[in-house]
Design a protein that fits this description.
313 residues, alpha/beta, L-arginine/glycine Amidinotransferase, Chain A, 3-stranded mixed beta sheet, 30% helix
């Protein structure tokens, strides 16, 4: 199946603007007049409301508390999908991340929990590649078509070609990599997307994608691969991607009925009537207000949710 009903999330206590990741994440905004304490409290409240809304719809959400014993704060701990992924064959993959304070997010206790409660056949830890300057940030870097066995990846400093190919082989997936198009960031400087999951979401029937975020030379190749796999393409604009996180969505299975497509309220409000109508033929839309997390963290709903595809014991 493309999606699962079981996920896990990390409840943040010290959330805030991360100056390290801001070097290549133009979705982040500089702190304003709000204090760090106020920002952290708002983010925690947004997180709790999102978890409550997901559980109310029958989604199985396991919550881990932020580890407060790290040698320095981990302001992006709310985005666990960058350091770990789980797979239906029992594999757990641990990833190398570019920025030092994000590397502190990796948690042995999370892996132990998975081993104690699910069938884990193998833990594949490639995080040591950080020492060679090689990075691949989990399902932020890779969008996986589980049914058709394809990994899509926008190449960047955080998503490097060799590691993407290596993990693709571990997953028994063909890799469709491409170069992201450059755009003008908020400060007027040219930039490109840092993670594939800000511009692309694959659901069971649909793919939500920003074609403008792909260089013209690669664009049709990627779209043709999606069409060949039977996906209905719902294009979003560059503005919808950059301003409203419309590419940062995730499908999860509903206990009954159509699967849910999770997104932020920012993204939901930015969709056109035609886009919503297309999505609603295939997915129920479930959205959450997380403006603080989006503003200072530069990530949205998909980044906050780590899927659990492991078989039950």
């Amino acid at each position: 199946m493309q999606s699962t009903n079981r996920v896990f999330m990390i409840r943040p206590h010290r959330f805030g603007y991360n100056p390290q990741t801001a070097q290549d994440n133009t979705f982040q905004s500089l702190p304003g007049e709000q204090s760090q304490e106020d920002v952290a409290q708002l983010a925690t409240a947004e997180f709790d409301a999102m978890v409550g809304a997901m559980r109310a719809q029958g989604i199985d959400v396991k919550v881990f508390e932020e580890n407060l014993d790290t040698p320095e704060a981990t302001p992006d701990v709310v985005f666990p999908n960058n350091w770990v992924s789980t797979h239906a064959n029992g594999n757990v993959i641990i990833y190398p991340m570019r920025w030092a304070n994000r590397q502190l997010e990796r948690r042995e206790d999370v892996v132990i929990f998975l081993k104690e409660n699910y069938k884990v056949s193998k833990v594949i830890d490639i995080s040591a590649q950080e020492k060679q300057g090689q990075y691949l940030e989990g399902t932020g870097s890779m969008i996986i078509d589980h049914v058709n066995g394809i990994v899509y990846a926008a190449l960047s400093e955080r998503t490097q070609a060799l590691l993407t190919q290596t993990v693709g082989e571990q997953l028994d997936c063909r890799v469709v990599s491409f170069k992201p198009n450059r755009y003008k960031g908020a400060n007027g400087a040219e930039a490109a997307i840092y993670h594939t999951n800000v511009m692309m979401c694959i659901a069971s029937d649909l793919v939500i994608i920003c074609p403008e975020a792909i260089i013209p030379e690669d664009r049709e190749r990627v779209l043709n691969a999606l069409r060949a796999s039977g996906k209905i393409i719902v294009p979003i604009t560059l503005e919808q991607m950059l301003e409203s996180f419309c590419g940062n969505m995730l499908e999860v299975q509903a206990p009954e009925g159509l699967p849910y497509l999770l997104m932020s309220t920012t993204a939901y409000n930015a969709l056109t009537t035609a886009q919503r109508q297309e999505i609603e033929q295939h997915n129920q839309m479930l959205h959450f207000g997380i403006p603080t997390i989006e503003k200072y963290g530069g990530g949205s709903v998909r980044c906050m949710v780590a899927e659990n595809f492991l078989p039950k014991l």
